[in-house]
């Protein structure tokens, strides 16, 4: 959910919020997005949101133009990157959170009417956060490519900060949830190696500097990229995304990557990942529901199938555009159309082709969640609430008075059941980072395309 001073706001139940965010550090952190149904800005998932949205625009911007959505997508991206730039006031300082989630969760109130304090958290050389700093570097590097032709000055600024943040992340290694253990309750990082590889991959695409390519293919590949089996693309784990992004270099014969065996290793890992996705592959993952939805965790279950589908359709397009039409999985062979079929099956499930006959995308279809765990959507526009008085809207038996159009909720359990209740945040809370991945997936399926070389 967008924060700050809203310009040309088309949502009648939204208004300005968080206008003084960052003031205690004399920074303007009013922009950006609240991560989910609450009123906290978490830098780690917010940066991931920007990286994925950039990737979607870079690959499928033409598709977005067909439905007049490229400009809104770029505006949303800039709203996040403006926040991230301001959150990086000096080379080795990055502000990573606005608001206290513990205090925030004691209230149920619209962001426009927040009464809680808005303290800040940061990482620096003594309290490192390689994961969040590297993810922010990835976000700014990828966004620099999006705006390269339309605003070269802004693009250069984004890239300058991206380089500084990557150097900071690599020089002062450590996890941000070790520096700030209290954040682990909300967005615990399971390691920073994947973010370092992910950021270096994007910086190579943005700069062509082979230093970044050596970073991902030499000793750091041994440290961070060697894993058994597929990893699942999410706000916490970017390794699968890095594998697909780096395989792009192999598919399209990138000059800097030519003869680099390390890039071939990433492509091999990406091949194995795709084989795990395909249900008819001999190495297909068993981590899916009876109806075929990739399913990894009960919390926010849709993040993994949507992320898997997005990577699959990207890979499908890379294969087709580079005339690499065959994917070998053991003794079996598959084509780009098989990956696209898998991706479409995951999208169809999200949009209503599932045992519950419910669309998990709010506002789409005849039946979708009406009790979304979202403060702004659950409280009437004209309601006057303080911190705790608003809890009556959380427990109300009536559907949300405001429709959070386009929000992707958490999703079903392994048995494919879904309980539409505001108190069931495990299943009904939407997130901005899932929405960004879904934008990429749905944009990719508008039409077949040839990726930009």
From TrEMBL:
One of its GO terms (biological process) is cellulose catabolic process. It is an enzyme of class 3 (hydrolase). It catalyses: Endohydrolysis of (1->4)-beta-D-glucosidic linkages in cellulose, lichenin and cereal beta-D-glucans. It comes from the Eukaryota. InterPro entries: 6-hairpin_glycosidase_sf, 6hp_glycosidase-like_sf, Glyco_hydro_9, Glyco_hydro_9_His_AS. Keywords: Carbohydrate metabolism, Cellulose degradation, Glycosidase, Hydrolase, Polysaccharide degradation. The keyword Protein biosynthesis does not apply. Its EC number is 3.2.1.4. Residues 4-442 form the Glycoside hydrolase family domain. GO terms for molecular function: cellulase activity. PANTHER family: ENDO-1,4-BETA-GLUCANASE. Belongs to the glycosyl hydrolase 9 (cellulase E) family. This is Endoglucanase. It comes from Gossypium australe. The lineage of its organism: Eukaryota, Viridiplantae, Streptophyta, Embryophyta, Tracheophyta.
